[in-house]
Amino acid sequence: MVTNLKQDPERIRREGGTRLTDLCAPCYADLCGELTAASSDGFRELTGSGEGCMVCGGLSLDLDASAAQLLRKASEEGYIYSTFRVNVRFRSDLPHEPLVKVKSRIKRGLGLRMEASSGKVVDTTSPELEFTLNLPSRRLELESRPVYLEGRYRKLVRYISQAKWVCRSCGGRGCLDCGFRGRHFSASVEELVTTPVSVFLKSTPVYLHAGGREDVDVRALGKGRPFVLEACDPRRRDFSAAELEEYINAYAQPFVEVELSKLTTRERVAELKQSSERNQKLYTGLVVFQHSVNLPDTGLTLRDIELVQLTPLRMLGNRADLARRKRIFKMVLKPVDLRKAEFELVCQGGTYVKEFISGDDGRTMPNLSQIMGTQARCLELDLVDVYSE
To answer: Which CATH number fits domain 9-144: 3.40.50.1100, 3.30.2300.10, 3.40.50.720, 3.50.30.10?
Structure first.
């Protein structure tokens, strides 16, 4: 038989062994309406917290001072915010169901007091700062909602990777393969962009989500490659995109420069990744042929070439050997001399351009070497534009 505590508290104390004397008056009042003989099993044999109440640690009797303490802690940590939410966690050995009313009372009480004294606003759906109280210990955790910024970067030099490239031979410890640097390249776009963002926003960690990836020896020029920055747990929010852009560029020059366009949301990261394969990309570069070729002075134009590309030989150790169908929309070759030509190429996102030119030992078909009747090799390659959907 389920007995309501409000109807017969002495019976529950006597038969169940629940130490109701370890509850403060507000928690006792809440639990009298919620705790039943069945759910009280979770409270049996529990001892007091030593802080006045086994559930809230005495916080229920001290809401004014507790609210002030939360605001003071956020200020000391340097958080700038206008909206907030209070979360409450109880001991894991306490049953959840009976504590819903206690949690609601504490969250509402703290929220109203913090609003009144700070001028900041409770936001239960998407707060800028979350206060999480662990009770009865009163241990506080602060976490600021991530900031997402959309923009484009230009990689102005060759031989820096997009992401930090840790040496696989030593795992970053340093060895002969990496010249005891622990990495294959001295800098990366990711580090040159995220490091100043972390300092400026007082945020850790910061992630660079890019729409595609260029090889280390390929520059990204023109409008650049689209990306989304994700700054986790930022202290600062009082900034403009223009201010942060200037700060990043001062740090990243002369290797990388960025243009930040707007604040965005987490959903934009997934959209950017999904659209990368569908976007059209414009490249320019220089190709060399094994034998002389006769190109018109006005140039040779190739259009609408459907490709089947197997995973490039240079990537087989890192990626599965898959067949990908890609498309070259247009390629214009203009002669430099009898064996070299400049080119401009528009292709589908995800196309391996170097392999289209060389043929990659027949793993990309058709290819430029096959079309021209002599082996071709890409000497230089630059991404000039990404035509987003």
So the answer is: 3.30.2300.10
